[in-house]
Amino acid sequence: MKSIITCFLLTLLAGCSNFPYMPDVEQGTPINTAEFKKIHTGDDEQTIIATVGQPSFKHVFHDNQWYYMIDNKAYKQPLVYKLVFQDHILKTIKPNQSV
User: Fold this and answer.
1) What are the phi and psi torsion angles at 45 (to 5°)?
2) So what's the pLDDT on residue 41?
3) Separation CA 14–CA 1 (nearest Å)
4) Which terminus of the chain faces fewer neighbouring Cβ atoms within 10 Å, N or C?
5) Once rounded to an integer, what is the mean pLDDT over residues 42-69?
6) C-alpha to C-alpha distance for 56 and 29, rounded to whole angstroms
7) Sequential DSSP letters for 16-58
8) From residue 92, how far is each of 4, 19, 77, 82, 99 by CA, in Å?
9) Residues of 45-82 as b/e, b for ≥16 C-beta within 10 angstroms?
């Protein structure tokens, strides 16, 4: 009986080590810094889309928050900029934001 319980516990521990497996998936397409510097507060959504393209992703619960990934080879990971709109006009640009 003791060996059955031990085997059961070992199986549970072994199965929980990396469950469920979640591969790293890069979302969106990073843009370069030169393109991103062309946008400014006061621009409307359509101007920003025409300048740098669609956002890498939008906030699920807040339609007025867009996120852009900036290609950053120095840190080997993209920088994320959060754009916040009010009445379809860009109000703030916040660098290095987590989603």
Assistant:
1) -60, -45
2) 93
3) 20
4) N
5) 89
6) 6
7) TTT-S-------S--B-HHHHTT--TT-BHHHHHHHH-S-SEE
8) 60, 39, 23, 8, 16
9) eeebeeebeebbeeeeeeebbbbbbbeeeeeeebbbbb
Amino acid of residue 39? I
| Residue (of 57, 56, 43, 30) closest to 92 by Cα position | 43
Mean of pLDDT values over 17-26: 60
Q: In terms of pTM, does the model score above 0.85?
A: no
Q: Between residues 83 and 72, which one has the greater pLDDT? A: 83
Residues sharing a CB contact under 8 Å with residue 28, sequence separation 6 or more, in sequence order: 55, 56, 57, 67, 68, 69
Contact (Cβ atoms closer than 8 angstroms) between residue 28 and residue 70 = no
Q: Which helix or strand (DSSP H or E) is residue 93 part of?
A: strand 89-94
